[in-house]
Amino acid sequence: MRIEKIQQLLQESGKDAIIFKNRENKKYFGSLGGSGIYLVVTPSSQVQFFDGRYRQEIKDLTNGFENFEVPQGSYLPKIFEWLQQQGIKQLAIEPNGLSIQEYRAFSEEFAVEIWSHQLQEIRAIKSAEEIQLIRNACALTDEIFTELVPEIKIGMPENELGALIHYLSLKKGASAMAFEPIVASGPRSALPHGRPTERAFEQGDFITIDFGIVLNGYQSDMTRTVMLGEADNELQTIYQVVKEAQQAASDFIREGVTGQEVDAVARKIITEAGYGDYFSHGLGHGIGMGGDVPILNPKSQMVLKENMVMSVEPGIYLPGVGGVRIEDDVVIQNGIGVALNHTTKELVSVGECYV
């Protein structure tokens, strides 16, 4: 069980308990993700503190926990009371769950240590079940994209394509979007995080489409850049550079290399092509329930291990001209990287007139 991993870590570290408030961490350890739920784990117990909004869900959707219902807004006094009754003095907390006010309150009562890499490493190594769930999410993402592409037309607003991504994703079984989809066309494709606007697609546009879904609690994340009709020669050139960099970095992924080394493979290709200044972000991030590692960027010293899953998404962004990003999710299995997305990475030309 996942909870046993954290209990073993508590024993090894000499900590008496850890408090979880971060949504993804709570869900990872089998609790509910709601804002009115605090998860407390000790070496021998796991306890959910919750308010009345979650009374039925706690019963229906979780098991193996002690449960304490508290009046809404009075979580901390009840948690402090329970911790003190257990004789707890050494407390671990997450870096991204509790508020600063809550951190101060815990620090006044207990010896507090922030656990970051400890939790990241537990979640980074995916089980066979988790990998299959991510694989399923990626397969559905491929399917959604396949249906999406024929709908792209000259004159269609970015907003409409964004809405269609939402619609197809939910229609086909996703429970939510992993993040707000990116649809950036023409000169706006030079914006790495260009959210959809009212801009209508024009002949010759490059259109960057970046979206992910949540399916059975696990996420996907895929980016493709398509061409509307015939695009500018320089855009077609940078497409091929990005495609080469993305494939080379994906092929380099293996157990034992660092995130920095993988990032350097893609960055070298883009830099040698003369576009190094226009690759303005890290190469990738962990894939899972959200907030996962490893991180692939110029500073990442994290060593990649079997069953880690990560995105690989180099890009080139030319201000006033346009940009390209191509992204797959990659898992390390049998020591090497395996792409989970199967949508073509060849440059696809789409679009007739919008009606």
UniProtKB/TrEMBL annotation:
Pfam families: Creatinase_N, Peptidase_M24. One of its GO terms (molecular function) is metalloexopeptidase activity. SUPFAM superfamilies: Creatinase/aminopeptidase, Creatinase/prolidase N-terminal domain. It comes from the Bacteria. Keywords: Aminopeptidase, Hydrolase, Protease. Residues 2-114 form the Creatinase N-terminal domain. Residues 133-333 form the Peptidase M24 domain. This is Aminopeptidase P family protein.
